Amino acid sequence: MKKIVEQISQFIDGHKFEWDGFETTVRVPSQRLERQMDIWSCGLFVLMALECIAMGHSYDEHCKDSLKEKMRGKCLNALMSLP
């Protein structure tokens, strides 16, 4: 898992994820969050969560149902840039 997070971090912002001082936290989303509203976009939510971890962003602000299309576009761009 660490290797995957490091690779994603390297891809997203060009820096290796620093594990020093990293703590794991189990978070239970509040009822006011925009949750996944369908059964097929779970992968996009996983990618949004990984991006939050890699970039140090707040999960509450950057992992929303309304941001699915933005993440879908990022995925498409990443796939299209592959050799």
Give an account of the 3D structure.
The structure is a single chain. The protein is an all-alpha fold and 83 residues long. It contains four helices and no strands. The mean pLDDT is 83.
Compact summary:
The protein is built from four helices and no strands.
List segments where confidence is low: pLDDT < 50 over at least 5 consecutive residues: none
SSE-based structural type: mainly alpha
Largest sheet: none
The radius of gyration is: 14 Å
Number of helices: 4
Write the layout of secondary structure elements.
Blueprint: H1 2-13, H2 42-55, H3 59-62, H4 68-80
Helix pairs in contact: 1-2
Features:
83 residues; mainly alpha; 4 helices
